[in-house]
Amino acid sequence: MKPTFGSYTECETIPIYYPPQYQPQQPGIESIMIPRPVSENPAYAGSGKLRDKVAIITGGDSGIGRAVAYAFAKEGADIVVVYFNEHGDAKETWTRINQLGRRCLTLAGDIGDESFCGHVVEMTIRTFGRIDCLINNAAVQFYQESIESITREQLERTFRTNIFAMFYLTKAALPYLKPGSTIINTSSETAHVGFKGLIDYSATKGAINTFTRSLSMSLVDRGIRVNAVAPGRTWTPLQPASLPPKLYMSAGFEHPLRRDAQPWEIAPAFVYLASDDSTYVIGQVIQVNGGSYFGQ
Fold first, then answer.
1. DSSP code at position 162
2. Residue 263, helix vs strand vs coil
3. Sheet of strand 133-136, all strands in order from the earlier edge strand to the far edge
């Protein structure tokens, strides 16, 4: 019997169509998506790989960030969920992390504002007393048919949210990161293959790859490891919030697995990079994309 879509066991190349749907804002609200993304693999029990560590996760209220938060909580970490203004999603994530037996702090604001990034770090230290892992995950994207349609305002917002925030948060957190701490950035397959309707977004993801490699070289002598995960197309609120239906309704059909990922399928790569399983891994961009890009 074939597993139904949305189950954690689904691994066959079954094309999935998503219905057209409306999202009132970016980066999107998970609770109104049809179907809902699958954020948690119930078969994933955790083994204490991140016991009593503290992780800051931007965009942790939904999508890949939420899935990472759940996986980290199952591995024993306490979580700081940083999000924009999706309060309902954040509450849902907070509730589940508490059900998993870990503590969760939620902080709403614009990570493109350097002062807010400082506030995130301050509240994390005040609440938990430490930072062990910084996950720079949050992003925005705005589909445009041509570069001529990309306004200065859009360009600045995309770069401010997607890459400037990584600088701001890293600088703010660095004084509290000790040897053995990790920084994990969320890149994208678009950094490698491009995407004609997401020129500015793809450019920020290319910048994230170089930021990751350069920062890893800068911090290696301090015992802090820096890496990135580059997901392929994943069913998150960002997709219907930013893409025309023709692009997300059959997303991933051209990939070998003929579907896009569910967020829980991306999360284990973050667990690997945050844990002692990856002590010899620095400056890498791990591709988790269903075979859409195999590297050079």
1. I
2. helix
3. 104-108, 78-83, 54-58, 133-136, 182-186, 225-231, 285-288
Q: At 142, which amino acid appears?
A: F
SS3 content of the chain, % helix, strand, coil (to 5): 40, 15, 45
248 noted as active-site residue: no
Task: Tell me which residue has tokens 């790989």.
Answer: 49
Whether the model clears a pTM of 0.90, i.e. scores above it, the answer is yes
For residues 52-82, one letter each, b for 16 or more C-beta atoms within 10 angstroms of the residue's C-beta and e for the rest, the string is ebbbbbbbbbbbbbbbbbbbbbbbbbbbbbb
pLDDT by residue for the chain (296 residues), tens digit each?
233 344 444 445 566 789 999 999 889 999 999 999 999 999 999 999 999 999 999 999 999 999 999 999 999 999 999 999 999 999 999 999 999 999 999 999 999 999 999 999 999 999 999 999 999 999 999 999 999 999 999 999 999 999 999 999 999 999 999 999 999 999 999 999 999 999 999 999 999 999 999 999 999 999 999 999 999 999 999 999 999 999 999 877 888 888 899 999 999 999 999 999 999 999 999 999 998 877 65
Spell out the residues 6+ positions from residue 246 whose beta carbon is closer than 8 angstroms to its own. none
The active-site residue, picked from 176, 201, 248, 280, is 201
In the chain, where the domains are located: 47-288
First to last CA, the chain: 38
Instruction: Determine the CATH number of domain 47-288.
Output: 3.40.50.720
